[in-house]
Design brief:
By secondary structure, this protein is mostly helical. The protein is built from 15 helices and no strands. The protein has a single domain, classed as ABC transporter involved in vitamin B12 uptake, BtuC (Orthogonal Bundle).
């Protein structure tokens, strides 16, 4: 099982088979929720690189997502010159462009602001997210407050799902490999003790900027996915609450656990929708009350998050050792 989890090809095959279950076994509403889960998985994993592994606190992730969404929306409408049968290749290229545009913004914002720490960094990144949103409100060629409509999307659910899963696996295994490299050890050293890292010769600002740029890239890709799935975006889709939602997923899943980020993204996306029928029974919309209470209970019972700093492979090793010992 560990070998399958660490192998991108086997992981892709397994998740594509799961997509067939959603394609033929569930209605369009559930399928749309699955696509939103994939977007949130990308958002959570990318933010976990900054907040979890590097120990910084960013509240502007929605701004990078907005840059990616508007880039791919504009490009898909105005620069889509290939025939429809090459739709997947076109969208993949535009998603890369969205990620690069968001990464450039992350570099420009991160280079001066990541010299700050703690609450100061959170305030700067929060301000950046709001600057992006207000700027988009005043850009008429991108729709302004009316939003950007008629964004090309995939022809069916399975193509959308496969495209999203491909990017999730790219994000997962990219961060996985980075964290096993010298960069990853540099990120962790910044999180554990920034002063000690500096005294050891590590360029802590450079490490934080690298993490911020890579995180921004995948947030931009998440925005591109969101644009293609909804076919319509407007600045109100990328408010401060979207950034808070990403932070909730990171903290709930476990700071420094990509598996935890995925589990939390599923939980945060699915629970409010699963509770929707409750309103028909009680006559009162208690979804957010129960949702909020669930978050409080999870954080009380699991202060370090659902997975802590562990991955699913760590749990599997513990299970195998326990079984072998017994």
């Amino acid at each position: 099982m560990i070998r399958a989890f660490k192998n991108p090809l086997l992981s892709l095959i397994a998740t594509l088979i799961l997509g067939l279950v959603f394609q033929f076994g569930f209605d369009e509403y559930i399928q749309l929720m699955v696509l939103f889960v994939t977007v949130n998985c990308l958002m959570a994993m990318s933010l976990n690189l900054v907040n979890g592994y590097t120990g910084q606190f960013s509240l502007g992730h929605a701004g990078f997502m907005a840059i990616g969404a508007y880039f791919t929306a504009y490009a898909s409408v105005n620069w889509n010159f290939l025939p429809e049968q090459f739709q997947g290749i076109t969208f993949f290229v535009f998603a890369i462009g969205s990620g690069l545009a968001a990464a450039l913004a992350g570099f420009l914002v991160g280079l001066p602001s990541l010299r700050l720490k703690g609450d100061y960094l959170a305030i700067v990144t929060l301000g950046f997210g709001e600057i992006i949103r207000v700027t988009l409100l005043n850009m008429d060629f991108l729709g302004g407050p009316r939003g950007f409509a008629n964004i090309p999307g995939f022809s069916n659910f399975y193509m959308s799902y496969a495209f999203a899963v491909l990017w999730i696996l790219i994000c997962f295994f990219t961060i996985w490999r980075v964290m096993k490299s010298s960069w990853g050890r540099g990120f962790l050293s910044v999180r554990e003790d920034e002063i000690a890292a500096e005294s050891s010769g590590i360029n802590t600002t450079g490490m934080k900027v690298r993490a911020f740029v890579l995180s921004s890239f995948f947030a931009g890709v998440a925005g591109a996915l969101f644009a293609h799935f909804t076919n319509f975006i407007n600045p109100s889709s990328f408010t401060f609450l979207q950034s808070v939602n990403a932070v909730i997923m990171v903290v709930l899943g476990g700071m420094g656990s990509m598996t935890g980020s995925i589990i939390a993204a599923i939980f945060v996306t699915a629970l409010p929708e699963a509770l929707r029928p409750l309103q028909e029974v009680t006559g009162v919309d208690l979804r957010m009350v129960i949702y909020s209470l669930s978050l409080v209970l999870v954080m009380i019972l699991r202060p370090k998050g659902i997975m802590g700093e562990l991955e699913i492979t760590d749990l599997w090793r513990k299970y195998v050792r326990r079984s072998a010992g017994s």
